[in-house]
Amino acid sequence: MMHDISDTFIFFNRKLRESFNSITGNKDGHMSKEDICLGYRCYTGEDMSLSWIHNHRPSQNSFTFEEFCAIVTEYKRKRPSVASTIANKLAGSFSWLFKSLANFQVFLGGSCGCPRNPTTWRHDIAIPFLKKENITFYNPQVNTWRPELVELEDRAKNVAELLFFVIDNKTRSVASLCEIAFLVGCGRQIIVVFNSFNSEVHEVSEELTTEKERQDISRARNVLMDIIERNSIPVFADVEVALKCAALNLKQGIKIQELTISQGAMPVKYGHVLVGEALL
């Protein structure tokens, strides 16, 4: 059925007419389906799917200028958005990595630092230890971060058997503090290594901090430590000790809450006991 194009501005578009004429050679000419794809590219700088034309005009092989206008108008309205096309391509590019996420046992979360002064605990301590113990891991710290890595990181976090977070004095780690509190509340198996925020630290991520900010960060970390311990999860002060406990959790099935002093953990006494807010 012929589309009514009397109400569309595209019929009067000079550039569209120029695209048609450049393909057919004159204003009274006709286009083939291949010509329409070429004309659409001349008009928009983008590609039109030849199979789309075959599906929508299966029995027609010759097209007038008016019909060319109708097809272009219809295709522009129904074609996938550029954003969705890019998203699909990115998903395809990372699909192999998404499938392999099920093999990651540990997610290395927490402080990353700034680009010019990144934290090094992952590469210097954690990764060599995990490789030696044949424990698979996901490292979210990359040299060049891209938005599409958000989904990849989230999937790795969801499938990991154990979450391993380190909070140090080099970064504020505000987002990590909130994230840890959420994961603890979800009942995940998590190890948290805390370097308590020293009030004498005056520079974080190459930015000077105020006295008020240092007090706020220190208070937030103390509150988080309280939340962790109230879920009977020990808090660690040493990365190497925490990694050994991570290996016990993954290889021997010992829950983080069940780790003992002999295994390097500082068990939480009566962590489940509720107290009044005035005592916090």
- Rg, please? 30 Å
CATH architecture of the largest domain: 3-Layer(aba) Sandwich
Total count of helical runs of at least 4 residues: 10
Order the strands across the largest sheet as they lie in space: 4-1-5-6-9
List low-pLDDT spans: 1-12
Q: Tell me, briefly, the overall form.
A: elongated
3D architecture notes:
The protein is of the alpha/beta class. It folds into two domains: 5-78, EF-hand (Recoverin, domain 1), CATH 1.10.238.10; 97-263, Rossmann fold (3-Layer(aba) Sandwich), CATH 3.40.50. It is 47% helix and 10% strand. It contains ten helices and nine strands. It has helices at residues 14-24, 33-44, 50-56, 65-78, 82-100, 121-132, 149-159, 174-185, 211-229, 239-252, and strands at residues 106-110, 113-114, 117-118, 137-138, 162-167, 190-194, 203-204, 207-208, 235-236. Strands 4-1-5-6-9 form a five-stranded parallel sheet, sandwiched between helices. Strands 2-3 form a two-stranded antiparallel sheet. Strand 5, helix 8 (174-185) and strand 6 (190-194) form a beta-alpha-beta unit. The longest helix has 19 residues, at 82-100. The chain is elongated and about 90 Å long. Residues 1-12 have low confidence and may be disordered.
